[in-house]
Amino acid sequence: MFCHSAAWRYVNVYDSTRLVIRAGRGVAQQRKGTRYMARIQDEALAYALLRLTLGVNIAVHGFIRITGGIDAFLAQQLPGFEGTPLPLWVARAFLPVLPFVELAIGLLIIVGLFSRPALAIGALMLTSLTFGLGMQGQWGFLGLHLSYAVVYFILIFLRRYNTLSLDTLVRRIDSQ
């Protein structure tokens, strides 16, 4: 027997046990009598782990570049843009800011705060890096960037499973 309402679905199961599923919340509660046991749904866990992995990857890129020194990072990267169609002043303006953007975006993705804008900005950052690599003719790295783009796409597309995040916690606090 099924009962549907806007927020809750009740599914009768064996032995007077009901499975109560909160639509879109990522947590299922099983109730038998007055005891509740919450479990994290697989989709929410998988989403959180993918988000965490991408966030750590991006944040570490920025952190290592900052702690290694911005001047050293520029000295390593700028020569690759000499003789390319991209004006050198564009690379000189973009590269010093990049590690700080990577660190900030990575940290936001790790904790799941401002997830949609953080993922969108991260994807746009990746697009700009892909453009720069294309200008340098580094075709081997472009495939790697495409795999990052797929991860950003998946995280944006499946954001409804972003329930193990600060975004969800803030939303719950605001609704109380």
What does this structure look like?
The protein has 176 residues and is α+β, with helices and mostly antiparallel strands. It has two domains: 39 residues, no CATH class; 119 residues. A five-stranded antiparallel beta sheet has the order 1-2-3-4-5. It starts with a strand and ends with a helix. The N terminus is likely disordered.
List keywords for this structure.
7 helices; 176 residues; alpha+beta; 5 strands; disordered N terminus; 5-stranded antiparallel β-sheet
Write a short abstract of this structure:
This protein is of the alpha+beta class and 176 residues long. The chain contains 7 helices and 5 strands.
**Rg of Cα set:** 22 Å
What fraction of the residues are assigned to beta strands by DSSP?
A: 5-15%
| Total helical elements | 7
Shape: elongated
Summed up, the domain count is: 2
State the distance separating the first and last CA atoms.
32 Å
Number of strands: 5
Task: Enumerate the spans where pLDDT stays under 50 for 5 or more consecutive residues.
Answer: 1-24, 32-37
* Helix percentage range: 55-70%
Largest sheet: 5 strands, antiparallel
pLDDT average, as an integer?
A: 84
- Compressed to H and E, one letter per element, the order equals EEEEEHHHHHHH
* Structural class by secondary-structure content: alpha+beta
Task: Please list the strands of the largest sheet in the order they lie side by side.
Answer: 1-2-3-4-5
